[in-house]
Amino acid sequence: MRTRTIAFTAALLAAGAAYARGNLGEVPTQQAAGTLTCTTKPEASLIFGRTPVADCTFVADRGGFRQSYVAMFTRIGRSESIERAQTVRWRVLTRDGFARPGMLVGLFTAPGDGSQGSGARALPELAGRTASLRLLSHSGQSAANFALVHPRIDFAAAQAGMMR
């Protein structure tokens, strides 16, 4: 009886491991939910000491809903990039392509798998808890340079919900 229990448990563990391995290898597809546009505020950046701060607006693809956010970018070492306002645009991606109030709140970071620097992706991405940001454009420097200098961005909602 004990041998059967051990064999049954081993079979369950092997099946679970095979199932997990198959599911973990799949990259979940993400769909476009909207566009996030951020404009840096040089006057606020100087107060926080070389930490760029920006006002951001998310516009949903479906329904045209909007939500305002405030962003704090990774601290940088050069001052010339924060002396004038710059605009950054991202494509916001979610699993189902739908926008939700507050979905961009929190920390967004570059994946730690090294794929950003190897050229494996055409456009740099930042991953958050419920969405990903794919860099579309940056007014002050090339998109690749911006992504390397700012691998972390923290967002806070400036308004409670979405508006039209």
Automatic annotation (TrEMBL):
Keywords: Signal. InterPro entries: DUF992. Residues 1-20 form the signal peptide. It comes from the Bacteria. This is DUF992 domain-containing protein. The lineage of its organism: Bacteria, Pseudomonadati, Pseudomonadota, Alphaproteobacteria, Hyphomicrobiales.
